[in-house]
Specification:
The protein starts with 15 loop residues before the first strand and ends in a 16-residue tail after the last strand. Helix content is 36%, strand content 17%. By secondary structure, the protein is an alpha/beta fold. GO terms for molecular function: cysteine synthase activity.
Length: 298
């Protein structure tokens, strides 16, 4: 039966599709990389599997061990899937206000959930994960400082985009959470063509967009290198949700809130350039947000 792939082999190689209606009349091509097509439903499937497989390869962990991670959602679901595939106990620490779909998905894969308050947020979750590791309760994979996170995108996402656009990509846009996607893709794409512009997204002050952050300096992910990002755009929660709903209704692409922000940024960029090939990461699916009511708003 070895000729058949396992679920692990289905991570990556996601579609890259052209937006047809939202861009309007333009000489630019706006493309969305549909990361919701990964098995556990988000771009985080790539680094989750990479962090476990590479740690195994180095002999740092072995099946049966306990892994710990702070997560706002998608990484947790992806790690829960990867832990289930490869035989690990997983403890996930997350802010209590994350959507019920995310929590239920993590539990479905067998992960154990520990919640911190909304006020403590991801910073508090990260602190608790390190405290639990110090107390011998398991090993923190540390998506924020683990080079195997961007490595997944250097090996996978970046080369896929280069191949799928036949090397014509001119601009790459990604929301910034752990910053693994933008770091890995930037490294690969800039090696192929240094002229490719890399645009990162962060929420405006006061906006809450699941999965992306405006990090305090003390908590800036260790994998982040600002030299790899040509431009940072501020995106509001309102415009992210607006374009998320438009993506479903006008493009038939059911995506999450940060993906709406990436589309908003792509349109803003499209108004400034011509004859460009703009690739935006559509990082997850919209069904992960139904209980929040964001799709019910006009």
């Amino acid at each position: 039966m070895s000729e058949y792939p396992t679920i692990e082999a289905c991570v990556g190689n996601t579609p890259l599709v052209r937006l047809q209606r939202i861009p309007g009349e333009t000489s630019n091509t706006i493309l969305g990389k549909l990361e919701g097509n990964n098995p556990a439903g988000s771009v985080k499937d790539r680094p989750a599997l990479s962090m476990i497989v590479e740690a195994e390869r180095r002999g740092e962990i072995q099946p049966g061990d306990t892994l710990i991670e702070a997560t706002s959602g998608n990484t947790g679901i992806a790690l829960a899937m990867a832990a289930a595939i490869r035989g690990y106990r997983l403890i996930l620490i997350m802010p209590a206000h994350m959507s019920s779909e995310r929590k239920q998905a993590m539990s479905a894969y067998g992960a154990e959930l520990v919640e911190v308050t909304q006020a403590e947020g991801m910073e508090g979750a990260r602190d608790l994960a390190l405290q639990m590791q110090a107390e011998g309760e398991g090993r923190v994979l540390d998506q924020f400082g683990n080079p195997d996170n961007p490595l997944a995108h250097y090996r996978g996402t970046g080369p896929e985009i280069w191949r799928q656009t036949a090397g014509t990509v001119t601009h790459f846009i990604a929301s910034m959470g752990t910053t693994g996607t933008i770091m890995g893709c930037s490294s690969y794409l800039k090696q192929q063509n240094p002229e490719i512009r890399i645009i990162g997204l962060q929420p405006v002050e006061g906006s809450s967009i699941p999965g992306i952050r405006r990090w305090p300096k003390a908590y800036m992910p260790g994998i982040f290198d600002d030299a790899r990002v040509d431009r940072i755009m501020d995106i509001s929660q309102q415009e992210s949700e607006h374009y998320m709903r438009r993506m479903a209704r006008e493009e038939g692409i059911f995506c999450g809130v940060s993906s709406g922000g990436a589309v908003a940024a792509a349109l803003r960029l499209s108004a400034e350039v011509s004859d460009a090939v703009i690739v935006a990461i559509i990082c997850d699916r919209g069904d992960r947000y139904l209980s929040t009511g964001v799709f019910a708003t006009p």
